[in-house]
Amino acid sequence: MAKNNNEVPINGLYDDEGRIVDEQAEEGRGENVTESVEEAAEVSLSKEELAALCKESVCPGCDVFKEAESIRLRALADSENVKKRLLRETEELKKYAGESILADLLPILDNLDLALAHTDGLSAECKNFVIGVDMTRKIFLDAVKNHGLETVQAAKGAEFDPEIHDAVGTVQESSLGDNQIAQVVQNGYRLKGRLLRPAKVMVNKL
């Protein structure tokens, strides 16, 4: 049927062949086309994109959810371990902050000990000087003890312990047992339980 130019359609428009086209029908077809495109787009998603969508709204029993939860828990555990390690290192740094300074002060104690070790046959005037040196040593030792420095146990007749003693030589004394300390050459020190310097000793070997 040919299209009459004077005719005005009531419910629609003419198509190219002169037929009246229903707008509602056209709209319905347009919606169907849109839905088909959306369905095609959903089908064309990659596995990674589908996994990402699944993680956003996934059921607790899904394998993807379990994997995501496992990753989250591992990340939390790693974060907690790092936090604990940093806290431990900070506390240890504070505890032994003065280690290098106290280590530099040890030669002063060594020289005072050496001076007091050679006091035989001195005059009365020199003995008074020795008393002053001994008092200075005690005051100095008390000061460093307040910062956690303590002397390593080492005395003549004590058993040699390689953990805290450093053998610088051997002697033979019948009055001492084997592997006992015969002489303390240099005192050793600990700082808050940590060995700062081992005691240097002569060990008896029979």
Automatic annotation (TrEMBL):
It is found in: Cytoplasm. Residues 16-32 have a biased composition (Basic and acidic residues). The keyword Chaperone applies. PROSITE patterns: GRPE (PS01071). Residues 13-37 are annotated as: Disordered. Pfam families: GrpE. Keywords: Chaperone, Cytoplasm, Stress response. Coiled coil: none annotated. InterPro entries: GrpE, GrpE_CC, GrpE_head. Its main location: cytoplasm. Homodimer. PANTHER family: GRPE PROTEIN, GRPE PROTEIN HOMOLOG, MITOCHONDRIAL. Belongs to the GrpE family. Participates actively in the response to hyperosmotic and heat shock by preventing the aggregation of stress-denatured proteins, in association with DnaK and GrpE. It is the nucleotide exchange factor for DnaK and may function as a thermosensor. Unfolded proteins bind initially to DnaJ; upon interaction with the DnaJ-bound protein, DnaK hydrolyzes its bound ATP, resulting in the formation of a stable complex. GrpE releases ADP from DnaK; ATP binding to DnaK triggers the release of the substrate protein, thus completing the reaction cycle. This is Protein GrpE. It comes from Pseudodesulfovibrio karagichevae. The lineage of its organism: Bacteria, Pseudomonadati, Thermodesulfobacteriota, Desulfovibrionia, Desulfovibrionales.
